[in-house]
Amino acid sequence: MIRGLTRAGLGSTWSNEEFIRKAAAYGFESVDIDAKGLIASLGREGAASLLAETGVAIGAIGLPVDWRGTDAAFRHALPALAESAAAAAELGCTRCVTYILPSTDQPSARFMAQAIYRLRVCAEMLGAYGLRFGLEFVGPHHGRVSRKNPFIWTVEETLDMAAAIGLPNVGLLIDFYHCHTTGFTPSQLEQLKADQIVHVHINDAKDLPIEELRDNDRLYTGEGVIDLTGFLSALKKIGYDGPVAQEVLTPEPPAGDPEELLRRTKTGFDRVFPD
Fold it and tell me: Which partner for 194 in 5, 27, 113, 240 could form a disulfide, CB atoms 3.0-4.6 Å apart?
């Protein structure tokens, strides 16, 4: 498995180049960033050279498409998706991810049909550039009632959606916080196949009833009650060898020194990662 970072929880204003160099300095092997933006700032040769020099890969890019809104907004964003996918492929990135909220203001059945169609279009475009597409379910209970109608929030339902999309490059983004808040255990994770998992987020949770945990109130890796060692061991057992990227969402931007937060993150990874 590859130790990775997102910017979430680091509170930095580092440029992409600085972020990559900081990640390398602390032993991280991937970062989730916008490949298109990296090329825009450094050029194709400069971006590729930086990644080669530091030994840091781009773990995943985010989906630059509003697939939840109007048809016009969705279609308008598709050229940007092609550009982002092309940039990612040029820099060796093979993953793109998006999240699925657990409730919607639209009728659930209609929204499901719309989501499957639109995500299939995105998956087809990503596949043309050799990218896999990870769907992230969102587990915290408050999200299930924040909009009018329930949608999906479990591993099983997200796998059903991936099957309905029906393309081989579509799978799961497993976030351990969402696993914890839906009661999904390491032993259940062991029942999945490695090729069903596109990307992984790691973080931690407060010692509260899971019904009280908020999506934007997470702890740093190794500082809470989630069985992170168990989840990581399960991933290792099934043969997952992709990025495991820290994503710590907080109510307010972190106030600490970014360098110290990065050291804190490394300490947490060292604590929970299997040998």
Answer: 240
Backbone φ and ψ of 200, nearest 5°: -135, 140
**pLDDT tens per residue across span 196-206:** 999 999 999 99
Angle, helix 108-128 to helix 155-165, in steps of 10 degrees: 60
SS3 224: coil
Q: Which residues have CB under 8 Å from 110's CB, separation 6+?
A: none
pLDDT digit string, tens, across residues 10-23: 988 899 999 999 99
pLDDT for residue 108: 94
**What are the residues whose beta carbons fall under 8 Å from the beta carbon of 74, sequence distance 6 or more?**
65, 66, 67, 118
**Cα–Cα distance, 185 to 258 (Å, whole number):** 32
CA 49 from chain center: how many Å?
25
Residue with tokens 């973080």: 203
Q: Is 268 left (phi over 0), alpha (psi -120 to 50) or beta?
A: alpha
d(CA 96, CA 86): 12
pTM, to two decimals: 0.96
Please answer whether residues 41 and 17 qualify as being in contact, where contact means their C-beta atoms are separated by less than 8 angstroms.
Answer: yes
Q: What is the amino acid identity at position 207? A: D
Q: What are the tokens at 52? A: 């080669």
Return d(Cα 181, Cα 215) in angstroms, integer.
9
